[in-house]
Design brief:
Layout (H helix, E strand, L loop, with lengths): L5 E4 L4 E5 L2 E6 L3 E4 L8 E5 L8 E6 L5 E7 L2 E8 L14 E4 L5 E4 L2 E3 L11 E4 L4 E5 L2 E6 L3 E4 L6 E3 L19 H4 L23 E5 L5 E5 L9 E3 L1 H12 L7
Antiparallel strand pairs: 1-4, 2-3, 2-10, 4-5, 5-9, 6-7, 7-8, 8-9, 10-11, 12-15, 13-14, 15-16, 17-18, 18-19
Length: about 260
Amino acid sequence: MTPAPFVEPTPRRIRVRLGDELVAASTCAQLLVQYGPGGLPTYYLPHEDVYPDALVDETIGPDGQRTWAVRAGHKRAEAAAWTHENPTGTMSTLAGHVTFSWRQLEWYEEDERVVIHARDPYKRVDTLRSSRRVQVLVADELVVDSIRPLLLFETSLPTRYYLPFGDVHTVGSMSDIVDDKHHIRGTLDLSNAVWQRAEGSAELEGPHLEIAFVQDGYVAMRSSEHPVDDQTLLFTPSEWEAFVLGAKDGEFDVM
C-alpha cells in the first residue's frame, strides 16, 4: 500500500539552476514526500525565493494551478515551474510555493546536485558539502568561522555541522571546544580499546589517525600524537555510517 503524501519543512538549503544561472534559492523550502503514479519526492520553494523575472508566460488551469516557463539568460524551459494543484488540507503549507521540473532544470541540496527527485530523509542519512557560513562562539569568543562545512542530516534529528580543523581559531586545546558528547564520554571505557590505523600507515612518519570500535556501537578517533581521552573524538553509529558512505562515494577526496 502506497503511503499518503505529506509535507514538512526541510533544513536543507535548496537551489535550482537553469544552465549556469540560479533561478531560485531558499532555506525555507517545503519537502513533499510522495510515491506512486502521482510522482516522487520534490521540493516547493516560497514564491518570494524565486529570482525576479525567472518565471514568465504564466498560464492558469481550470483547477487554478499556475504554470510558468522558466527563463535565465538566453535559456528558456517551457512549462518548467508550477504550483501545487490543490494546496489545501494536509497540502496547505504548499500555498504560495513553486516547484520546478527535475528533467529541465538542475536541483541542488546545499552545494551538491541531486537528480530525478528529492532525497527522502526517512530512507537515508546524508552528508552534504555546503558553502553556508557557520560560526561557533564560546562565551562570546569566536572559535570557528567556516564557509566550507560538511552537514550531516539524520532522520528526525537536528542538523550536525562538521567543520574543517583549519577553520578552528587557535585555542588552548581541543578540550576547550564545546563537547557535544560529554554526556557519553564519561560512560565509555577507552582503557581497553583496540586502536587501529590505516593499512600501511605504520611506514609513514609523523602522527597517525587511529580509530577504535567501542561499546554501544560508538566509534572513537584520536591522533597518535595526543592519545588522551579528552582529545578523542566520538561518533555515534549513524554518524560513522554517514562518514564511511561519504568516503566510499569520494565526498572527502581532495582534487
